[in-house]
Specification:
With 196 residues, this protein is mostly helical. 77% of the residues lie in helices and 0% in strands. Helix 1 (4-23) runs antiparallel to helix 2, helix 2 runs antiparallel to helix 3 and helix 2 packs across helix 7 (172-179). It is elongated, with a radius of gyration of 18 Å.
Length: 196
């Protein structure tokens, strides 16, 4: 029974949604802004870009593993590494937003604090998914497929929830300042996030 592929595709689809979270950090308009805010946006965008790439690569690795008729052990090692990379990437983005300080806008400190907490929570969720993947029984394909299904469901929830604080962080002037940064533009490769 080749039961992992449909489940794996669900996993890949759920993962693609997760990548949108990081792209929420890329604003999509332009303004004159202020120097202080532009400097803040540059420091965050410069840090986000390599992490967005890492998340994209992790997604691509899982997508590739789903398109082949892969062995459970291969799927497990690919997914495990991808979740680890995503966890590291979100943690690094959280650290970058934390290090940048509060953006120079009304309520900036709260927006920054909430976004950092959210990014760290997302990082923790991916670390938890990695542990779950590592525990799956690759010798029993049916059990493995069931385990993957459970992980895909959690991923789905993760990709749909949790980007509220990021959206709030990049509202208004902050988003406009970020939109002007070349590194945020290039981090925003997704068609949904790239509308100007």
């Amino acid at each position: 029974m080749e039961g992992t592929n449909p489940v794996n595709k669900k996993l890949a689809a759920a993962l693609s949604g997760g990548a949108v979270l990081v792209l929420a950090l890329s604003g999509c308009s332009s303004d004159n802004g202020n120097e202080k805010l532009n400097s803040w946006a540059k420091s965050v965008c410069d840090a986000v870009q390599p992490q967005a790439k890492k998340i994209e690569d992790a997604n691509a690795a899982i997508q590739k593993e789903t398109s082949d008729n892969s062995k459970p052990a291969d799927v497990q090692s690919t997914d495990s590494q991808a979740f680890q990379d995503m966890s590291d990437a979100y943690k690094a983005i959280g650290a970058a937003v934390n290090k940048a300080g509060a953006p120079a806008v009304s309520g900036g400190a709260k927006k920054q604090k909430d976004a950092v907490k959210e990014l760290n929570d997302i990082s923790g969720s991916y670390a938890d998914l990695k542990k779950q993947v590592d525990k799956l029984d690759t010798k029993d394909q049916a059990k493995f497929a069931d385990g993957l299904k459970g992980i895909a469901t959690q991923l789905d929830k993760l990709s749909q929830s949790g980007s509220d604080a990021l959206k709030k962080l990049e509202e208004g002037e902050v988003g406009k300042a970020m939109a002007k940064q070349p590194t945020c533009k290039s981090a925003s490769a997704s068609p949904a996030a790239a509308k100007n």
